Amino acid sequence: MDKHGSSSSADVEAPLLLPPPHPAAGDEPRRRRRPAAAVARALLAHHRSYLAVASGPAACAAVCALADLGADHADARNMLGVLAWVFLWWVTAAVPLAVASMAPLFLFPAFGVASADEVAKAYMGDVISLVLGSFILALAIEHYQIHRRLSLNITSLFCGDPVRPQLLLLGITGTTFFISMWIHNTACTVMMMPVATGILQRLPRSDDAGGHEVRQFSRAVVLGVVYASAIGGMATLTGTGVNIILVGMWSSYFPDQEPITFSSWMSFALPMALIVFVALWVVLCLMYCSGNTGKALSAYLDRSHLRREINLLGPMAFAEKMVLAVFGIMMATLLFIIPSGKNEGEKLMDWNKCRKLQWDIILLLGAGFAIANGFKSSGLTDILSEKLIFLKGAPTVVIVPVACIVSGIITEFTSDDSTTTLVLPLFAELAKSINVHPALLMVSGAIGAQLSYLLPTGSPSNVVGFSTGHITIKDLVVTGLPLKDQ
């Protein structure tokens, strides 16, 4: 500024914030139309997902408005509406499985079915802790690459010299079956599928000579891991979420009955699982192993080469031995206490290594227990008992297969855990109404729910196998039908 108070153009500073330019006369409508058009395009692009999300609350509103359960059963009607909401979100995958499984946490209190405290307790009981521990054990085995050592040893031990495809298939599926008895079948599939694909990486996926036999054997390996993990899980209470839900609901509905223990279930289920496993192996050998399969595989699976690779791995490190020891006693907590022996202060497992925990499965189990409690607290179980009284007098030899068939059909379209959560309360009340032992219907329903062999949607294990690219839905259907008819 000069002495006369006037300022030169060089001395004038630009304002820090310039006012927005005034739009021209024709620009304002265009500026308003653009966001609306973008929103419309986004809605059209994702209309299916939005419809799936809306289907849940819409079904709930329809049930609450139209279902007539009597003036004294408002809570039961609300429970039925909430169940429709959660079930549709599960089936349509409108939201992630974990999110849908947490819906009871806010829906039950909002609709007066149960308090928030009561619902929250269902998500972290002793059964949930058992599943969580099995997942952590599986992650530890994967973290220390024990599955790679396992794949090499299985292949070397069972491939034969010359290669015997049936024997190798028995080794892979038998190992999967045994491991799935002690950890959750989904965790077993996640752990064993890299073992299977590690073996298959040695095999070409081209159309060269013998390519058809190699591709068929690859299908058999992937299908064998998927089905063997499901079958092995049937044998023990820890092997699958279905059995865990069964135990929880049994103790909830029939506290005066003798509890289902680990030994009592295993004495019943292990022989059945072994029979189904043998049937699986026979089906895979007949459908996917021909007389030329061994010759086609012999060029890629050489026992001496496999043994050299095992030697290159060296002896088992301290961490690997400790992980296997902890796995043998099924105490995942020790993994966070025992040092790894690699770095100072490092433990076998820490929480950062648990980032891949399958929280969606854990929350799904919690939702199952919450829904079972909601059936009782809302009075819906009493209503179902009254409605099903017409089945009284039907022979048990008819009712039990029907229970297994009903759950076996439903489980193909939603997860086996979800199916169990939905049908077991129904079967519990049915047993009361027709005066049969509840174990007949509830155990039959639980077993039927585990026979999800035909579609990827039936089980997370099916999804894991399907994602490898070695199998198709047709492979699942063709192989699963004979097993499902056992």
UniProtKB/TrEMBL annotation:
GO cellular component, one term: plasma membrane
Membrane topology reported for the UniProt record: Multi-pass membrane protein
Biased composition (Polar residues): 1-10
Entry GO MF terms: malate transmembrane transporter activity
Protein species of origin: Eleusine coracana subsp. coracana
The protein, known as: Tonoplast dicarboxylate transporter
TM region(s), chain numbering: 50-71, 83-111, 123-141, 221-248, 268-289, 310-337, 357-376, 388-410
CDD domains given in the database record: SLC13_permease
Region of interest (Disordered), ranges: 1-32
Coiled coil region boundaries: none
Annotated compartments: Membrane
Chief site of localization: membrane
Keyword list, A-Z: Membrane, Transmembrane, Transmembrane helix
